[in-house]
Amino acid sequence: MNLAAPISTSTSTSTSTAVRPHAHGLMPLNLPSAASSSLRRSIFASLRKKISPMASAPASASAALSTAAPADNGAAKPTEQRPVQVAKRLEKFKTTIFTQMSMLAVKHGAINLGQGFPNFDGPDFVKEAAIEAIKAGKNQYARGYGVPELNSAVAERFLKDSGLQIDPDKEVTVTSGCTEAIAATILGLINPGDEVILFAPFYDSYEATLSMAGANVKAITLRPPDFAVPLEELKAAVSKNTRAIMINTPHNPTGKMFTREELEFIADLCKENDVLLFADEVYDKLAFEADHISMASIPGMYERTVTMNSLGKTFSLTGWKIGWAIAPPHLTWGVRQAHSFLTFATSTPMQSAAAAALRAPDSYFEELKRDYGAKKALLVDGLKAAGFIVYPSSGTYFVMVDHTPFGFDNDIEFCEYLIREVGVVAIPPSVFYLNPEDGKNLVRFTFCKDDDTLRAAVDRMKAKLRKK
Fold this sequence. Notes:
- It comes from Triticum aestivum.
- InterPro entries: Aminotransferase_I/II_large (IPR004839), Kynurenine-oxoglutarate_AT (IPR051326), PyrdxlP-dep_Trfase (IPR015424), PyrdxlP-dep_Trfase_major (IPR015421), PyrdxlP-dep_Trfase_small (IPR015422).
- Its cofactor is pyridoxal 5'-phosphate.
- GO terms for molecular function: kynurenine-oxoglutarate transaminase activity; pyridoxal phosphate binding.
- The chain has about 475 residues and is an alpha/beta fold.
- Helix content is about 40%, strand content about 10%.
- The protein folds into two domains: about 90-120 and about 365-465, Alpha-Beta Complex (Aspartate Aminotransferase, domain 1), CATH 3.90.1150.10; about 125-360, Type I PLP-dependent aspartate aminotransferase-like (Major domain) (Aspartate Aminotransferase, domain 2).
- The strands form three sheets. It has a seven-stranded mixed sheet with strand order 2-8-7-6-5-3-4, with helices on both faces. It has a three-stranded antiparallel sheet with strand order 9-10-12, covered by helices on one side.
- Helix 6 packs parallel to helix 13 (about 350-360), helix 7 runs parallel beside helix 8 and helix 7 packs across helix 12.
- The longest helix is centred in the C-terminal third of the chain and has 25 residues, at about 360-385.
- The protein is globular and about 60 Å long.
- The protein starts with about 35 loop residues before the first helix and ends with a helix.
- Mean pLDDT is about 85; it is low at about 5-70.
């Protein structure tokens, strides 16, 4: 395996290193209107001065522009500008800061250590399997819940990893990435008014999809330095209305791995209160300091757990969007009902290639972990040398740091400065909290980049960042 072979080796002012959208790594700004209005105002104030007013104009402004009388010179009338429209359940998610950050990143030639996708390609044996599947004519609709060879490969891998034997036809549902597995699980099993508990910071699609389902969201905040689960706070949060608890281990964005003690405590709460457990385990093969523990493997938990995973992180093929949900038949029914009306089926030839990937020898996964461990050390050492307070990362390919030594009021102000003055992109994690104040001192970096890119970014930060 060669994780050092980049798609593009440019680390200077090329726009190829700037921010690009990605489903499971870059999240929009979710600042609840009721939370931290002062932080919201400070976040947008400086950026609005630098970006075209139409990029962030309120509906009233665009409406006013649309009603302005055009000059009567015989020219064609401009396209009418109308206020943006969005369903009430998604109103709070429509504002994003990342368009502005992307524009600034391109302008300043920033190196992208923000988004969770590699800048190197996946393994040849998997790509060749996709090519062969296409040539073999596997190009029409797949069976709705997955082609048989992939369902079987998922079941084989799950047995090897968790010790649990499952029925590939009745308990595996192939989805368009883990994000769709999350959506199908929530929309298929959660009713309006149900309460779901998340651990903040969290992947943004959790809250957005729960909003679409009409659920009530509770968040338990994981705090540095170790981001441990506050067990008694969690216990107090479970109520008669709690339908599910959602976990992500290894955890994006903190890099935390839930301990066996934490998982067993959560399992006991679920069993005592008849609560479901949704487990996002997309980073299970990037566990550096301890073995990954699948929540479904905790005694008594398989019958109430949906385990979600995908191909992208493990095989550096994030653009293929191949994911899956594993659950007992009585929960799989709901997942599949939603999946049928979300995407119905997932790319047929890529499913065949995914089956080949999951049957890779153990040496592939060992080398993957070893290579990413070296990348993590390169970035962590560099961040410490640049002056950050760096928190431990036991899994994923993310590192969380405290930016306060550099004297900025919040994470988005710092990240905007980092792009403009230093030339490096990071993610402001306040966007992953119900209350943005909880994350305003933190910044997330990723090390899923080739070594030259990591070194160039570290060199820029060491040369230009100054403590205040």
